[in-house]
Amino acid sequence: MSQASDQDWNPGTYDRFRGLRLRPALDLLRAVGPLPEGDIIDLGCGTGSVGPALGQLRRRLIGVDASPAMMEHAARTGVYDELLQEDLTVWQATRPAALIFSNASLHWVPDHQTLFPRLVQMLAPGGVLAIQLPHQNNAPSHRLWVKLVDELFPGRVDHSHGPNVLLAAEYHRMLSAMGQVTLWDTEYYQELAPDGEGHPVRRFVEATFARPILNALEPDERLRLIAAYEAVIGKAYPKGPRGTVLFPFRRMFFTLSV
């Protein structure tokens, strides 16, 4: 995550759905096998929500993130031996790592064809690269933000700076020559509780996918876009009798053992 200070991540907004965001990280961690000696890197650690689970591996734990606000929250967990505020596009391990673990962060980093082989080179012999990437860009929850902002404010948002995820076959082809790859998709059916401030799906995605879109607009334009999104999102994700919304969310996972 690499953002200007006026566009920093909002830990409170992000952590509103902390449990739902943590579950994929724990599923990924369960897929990690035996590790060699070396550090554990929580790459894109955010608020540090997965830090306590990674700390159970009993290794030196290093969190890396570009967001000052997120790093402040990660420090409060007290589980990291070191926290590094660095841009993930240029971060470099100082010594071979046993595990580079990244949960829902590297889709914000461009050029995966260069990034992922570089990360593999930072692993110790027998080390593991474990990655989870949201794979939701084509779903209505995400696609509608792009469609509406382009209709209301043509040319105002550069979508090349949005989440970047390749096809699963491309990751497999890129990494299989470097070690043993395990790759899978999971679609999580998340039940979102009613939210007095707006549709639950809007509240879920505005802290992540919609954040760079909203940041590109003036305050009055943001309100206009949000109102347009609220007017249509209920058709794709209707509310149940109790006001809850069933929200399918797809994620891609892979581990690479070298």
CATH class: Alpha Beta
DSSP helix fraction: 25-40%
Shape verdict: globular
Architecture, according to CATH? 3-Layer(aba) Sandwich
Radius of gyration: 18 Å
| Average pLDDT figure | 91
**Class from helix and strand fractions:** alpha/beta
Helix tally equals 10
Oligomer: single chain
One letter per element, helices H and strands E, the order comes to: HHEHEHEEHEHHEHHHE
Classify the beta-strand content into a percent band.
15-25%
Uncertain segments: 1-6, 9-17
Kindly state the number of beta strands: 7
Strands side by side in the biggest sheet: 3-2-1-4-5-7-6
Question: Summary?
Answer:
This protein has helices spanning 11-14, 18-30, 51-55, 68-76, 112-120, 140-152, 168-175, 200-205, 211-215, 219-236; strands at residues 39-43, 61-65, 82-85, 97-103, 123-134, 180-192, 245-257. It has 258 residues and is of the alpha/beta class.
Characterize the structure shown.
The protein is α/β, with parallel strands linked by helices and 258 residues long. The chain contains ten helices and seven strands. α6 packs across α10. The protein is globular, with a radius of gyration of 18 Å.
Fold topology:
Elements: H1 11-14, H2 18-30, E1 39-43, H3 51-55, E2 61-65, H4 68-76, E3 82-85, E4 97-103, H5 112-120, E5 123-134, H6 140-152, H7 168-175, E6 180-192, H8 200-205, H9 211-215, H10 219-236, E7 245-257
Helix pairs in contact: 6-10
